[in-house]
Amino acid sequence: MRSRRSFLTLMGLTAPLALTAPARAFELQPYDSAAVEQAIASGKPVVVHVYADWCVQCHAQAAILNSLKNDPAYDNVAFFKVDFDKQKDVVAKLNCPRSTLIAYKAGREAARMSWDTSRDAVVKILRAAM
């Protein structure tokens, strides 16, 4: 009985904290040509992730991006995800393989990286956009 009471007390104390947790700094939006072109043209930092569901490197990069979602440093960056298998026209236009991150800064491509799955490499691309 005591452990149940302790558990309920703990839950009562932590529930308000869960409600005040900060919102995620960013969300990967599905790639939409008009939205991406508008974001790039605005000069806003933009990161594009070319992703395939079956790609191991893509999943590793996505996990790193996911771990950075709460970092306020990326609040002003627009993130877009290209579906490698369903958006072949976009992949051709970007001229890149799957598992690619592309950074845009001040309306221009600033950096790109393919295949690397290290946190440092992903962060380097994000910083190139800022």
Mind explaining what this structure looks like?
Helices cover 44% and strands 22% of the residues. It has a single domain, classed as Glutaredoxin, CATH 3.40.30.10. The longest helix is centred in the first third of the chain and has 18 residues. The termini are far apart. With 130 residues, it is of the alpha/beta class. It contains 5 helices and 5 strands, in the order H-E-H-E-H-E-H-E-E-H.
Task: Characterize this entry briefly.
By secondary structure, the protein is an alpha/beta fold. The chain is built from 5 helices and 5 strands, in the order H-E-H-E-H-E-H-E-E-H. The chain is globular, with a radius of gyration of 18 Å.
